[in-house]
Write a structure and sequence with these properties.
Mean pLDDT: 86
Shape: rod-shaped
Number of domains: 1
Length: 97
């Protein structure tokens, strides 16, 4: 039983270490021909959103909403790739897998 608790603690410590290192990573997604850009950190928190003023003048609410959604989703996918690479590099694995 104590061996399982130690494994759990080690796993939790390893996960916290990866989370800390991911906070220093970032990824960007873009949409509408790079007129909308979303940057997120490795913990998938939005750092910035940039919108080209040209899109703001167009008064096309649906296009703007769609672009923000696409850029955010792309940024999330990009940071997930970074996360997977970090986990692989650190040898992170769940017991029994």
């Amino acid at each position: 039983m104590f061996n399982k608790l130690k494994q759990f603690k080690d796993l939790r410590d390893q996960a916290n270490e990866i989370k800390s290192s991911l906070a220093n990573e970032s990824a960007e997604g873009s949409a509408e021909w790079d007129k909308i850009k979303v940057k997120i950190d490795g913990n998938q928190e939005i750092l910035s959103v940039e919108i080209d003023p040209e899109l703001l003048n167009a008064n096309d609410k649906e296009k703007l909403e769609k672009g923000i959604k696409e850029a955010t989703n792309e940024a999330i996918k990009n940071v997930q790739k970074i996360m997977a690479k970090k986990m692989q590099e650190s040898g992170f694995s769940l017991p029994g897998m």
